[in-house]
Amino acid sequence: MKGLYVHIPFCKSKCFYCDFNSIVNDMLQDEYIDVLLKEIDSLSEENFDTIFIGGGTPTILSIKNLQKLLNKLSRFNPIEYTIEANPGTLNKEKLILLKNYGINRLSLGLQSANDKMLKKLGRIHKYEDFLKNYFDARDVGFTNINVDIMFNLPNQTKEEFMFNLYELIKINPEHISCYSLIIEEGTKFYEMHVKNELMLLDEEEERLIYHEINNVLKQNGYIQYEISNYAKKGYECKHNIIYWTDEEYIGVGAGAHSYYEGKRFNNISNVYEYINKIKLYNSAVEECINLTEAEHMSEFIFLGLRMNRGININQFKSKFNKDIMEIYSKEINELINNGLIEKVGENIRLTEKGRDLSNLVFVSFIK
Amino acid sequence: MPSDRQKKIRNFCIIAHIDHGKSTLADRLIEKTGTLTQREMEEQVLDTMELEKERGITIKAQAVRLIHNDGENEYILNLIDTPGHVDFNYEVSRSLAACEGAILVVDATQGIQAQTLANCYLALEHNLEIVPVINKIDLPSARPDEIKKEIEDVIGLDCSDAPLISAKVGIGIDEVLKAIVEKIPCPTGDEEAPLRALIFDSFYDPYKGVVCYIRVKEGTIKKGTKIKLMASGKEYEVTEVGIFRPSLMEVEQLQAGDVGYVTASIKNVRDARVGDTITEALRPASEPLPGYRPAIPMVYSGIYPADSSDYNDLKDALEKLQLNDAALTFEPETSVALGFGFRCGFLGLLHMEIIQERLEREYNLNIVTTAPSVIYKIIKTNGEVIELTNPTNMPPVTEISYMEEPIVNASIICPSEYVGAVMELCQEKRGIFKNMEYLEATRVMLHYEIPLNEIIYDFFDALKSRTKGYASLDYELAGYKKSELVKLDILLNGDPVDALSQIVPKEKAYQKGRAIAEKLKEIIPRQLFEIPIQAAIGSKVIARETVKALRKDVLAKCYGGDITRKKKLLEKQKEGKKRMKQIGTVEVPQEAFMAVLKVE
């Protein structure tokens, strides 16, 4: 499997929790797309198995720019072709365009079904806008839709959140990404948090909600396949699985990351600098790290363990020509004894407790 | 009678309370006499250690020769810089013994402080001529006339023509130079007599061996002289003599009245201790110069490598530090909780913090330091007396007849409105009031007898905070006193942690046990399982707290393809884990061992 990630770093406004690489500047759109097309042209790959257009907000692009971009990408013939779309920037016309260009998976950012909460998060839409987009997408013929939703939000009780989740289940999306809020440095929420202005749940309550989410989604036919991701059978996101299973991917656009031939490299994040670099050198790579074997092993493990199915012992052996139980015997045994991971057949995977404390598990495999 | 050569020499030091501008004045004198060009001048030239510059304090004594031309004559002025902190009092005393006079710097905004007085009395003991100088007169809050009167009233020095200066902006430096020449007596001493030279400081140089800072009192010393150190009895041949400009500069000889350095392939500073007298081996003086006594450690603590495989590196580092610091002592010890390490003796808490920082910075070691302890005397029922430096070694209560702890005489100077606050603090610290005197209408000096173990922890910080920074403190050891003491143990997950044990006064044990348990609860991070923290005296548990089990440690979002960022977060977490000490099944952060004593 090989994936292509395309980054669109523009948003109508910055959400209060978001620390992704995005800016609010409509003036740069045309220039950025021209440069991005140039970078796509420079790719030597014949094809990608997955394409993921993410952001920022890809659907903020004008019809003209979207058309230019999708046209450029039409030389590839992916199995899974996803675009992130945000209510408030989406309409039927755009949906038809996306569908016509072969996009077969839509990822909608809902975050909350409560209009007051949406406002508090700095979102530009109401729940109703989301619903309209969602049903329009169905009308147009999208049969694989993901919805992003968040819990552990300021002043949000368990009941409030669960109500959101049930509302979402009612409309029956194929895939749900359900994230626990993380307060990231450099966001508005971080400033508020430092000033003690955010009412947040304590660890215990937060985990209770997480466990209930897992149960409720399971009962409704959603299989958890990663720490924060749930899908109806066969609808797991292939592109994201590439990240977690040590497969190669190329990222284009400002700040996009790539993993290719044993190297991790990334483009410069700053949109202006990205534009200048591509114009001048046809490349905007900022940093390139050649993974050592030890680093490669630890990444293979801690990324693979994010997935519920875990990592496969034989796969490790064929990749590294070494037995994982020899290299990490002490760590693995200790983690098993502490009930954080378990061995099931030829796989090693997180237990439910391990999913709550996954960083503790991952750290054991670092260096 | 001084020789003509001696008439052109002045040996002096500068004494001052911390922050009153001693080092800044030294800088100005060096600059003004052209000893260093403007370009070579760095702020606080004499404080060479990185740590000294950072903390703005002088740890080691330093010396510099200044050439001053007053228009008629050229004078050699030897300035000896002295440490400003009470921990290093002994070094101050040695520095003073090398001089004929002292410049007393008093801050025009703050007036006399506890260390001003303490150092002044020391200088008077050494019969030094004291030249008062009023500094910081450029500040709006300066009150030079009042301060002059205070010095006259309290110390009895004539201040009628004391220079009013600002070392920072460079006002009045010429007047200081003039006062040095006019007021400080020149050295005397027979240049032909048997050699007697006082070692007032030393440092270890990897190429030259120990470099001794000396003041020649009588006789002459030059390259090739066979010398004998009178306290250690060891003999050497001089390889080099020289002066400080301020870097080392070789000269042909040093004679009675001179200040300079001597090297003689001495391998260890212990063999050339500060305070020792150098004489000629072939023509020894009959008597050493007065006053040699070794610096005695007052505070002990355990220093352990965080990673037990660093034990030998730690040992090497301590040995290297000791080459330069005769006051540092250490011997191997073992702790159940921390493994192999060293029990180290220090002059005081500052000395300890400095050693700790130097181990971490200069030797790049990751260390765990246990709570400092003073030396307790235990008188056992069988009459045996034990000096206890490590609480773990306390014998069973049944074998103890009684215990004694070291006591200091403390003097505290503060504005009179804070007398109540200071008295309250001293009372809390088990102080016994001696007397109180008014320095001027609004300032008071209080005398207390206080147990040393109350002083070494946070007394100074508490004093500063309760008096808005106005109070100053000085103290000296005054012997031992019988005291009701108990050993307070801390148990983590049911197991006693020897490195967290402390000797505390019985009356404070409960309060302290509770405070420590609470503090540890804050410091010890949540782990996979619940961790009970208990404080106990003997088998009796007096306090209990619980660190709840960790329920969540997860990054929900995996930032698309940005694996590097996630890995960096995990690496940071791993680093934090490495800085923990594994005690049984519990991971304890290193600061826990020090934090237990910073509780109230």
CATH architecture of the largest domain in chain B: 3-Layer(aba) Sandwich
Oligomer: heterodimer
Q: What class do helices, strands and sheet pairing of chain A give? A: alpha/beta
CATH class of the largest domain in chain A: Alpha Beta
Low-confidence stretches of chain A: none
- How would you describe the shape of chain A? globular
Topology, number of strands of chain A:
15
Number of helices of chain A: 16
Largest sheet entry of chain B: 8 strands, antiparallel
CATH topology of the largest domain in chain A: TIM Barrel
Structural domains of chain B: how many = 5
Please tell me the CATH architecture of the largest domain in chain A by its name.
Alpha-Beta Barrel
What does the largest sheet of chain A look like?
9 strands, mixed
Biggest interface found = A-B, 44 and 23 residues
Strand order across the largest sheet of chain B: 10-9-15-6-7-14-11-12
Give the strand order of the largest sheet of chain A, numbering strands 1, 2, ... along the chain. 7-8-6-5-4-3-2-1-9
**CATH superfamily annotation of the largest domain in chain B:** P-loop containing nucleotide triphosphate hydrolases
The CATH superfamily of the largest domain in chain A is: Aldolase class I
Alpha-carbon distance between the termini of chain B?
60 Å
Write out key terms for the chains shown.
heterodimer, A: 367 residues, alpha/beta, TIM Barrel, Arc Repressor Mutant, subunit A, 2 domains, three-stranded antiparallel sheet, B: 600 residues, alpha+beta, Rossmann fold, Elongation Factor Tu (Ef-tu), domain 3, Alpha-Beta Plaits, eight-stranded antiparallel sheet, six-stranded antiparallel sheet, 14 helices, 34% strand
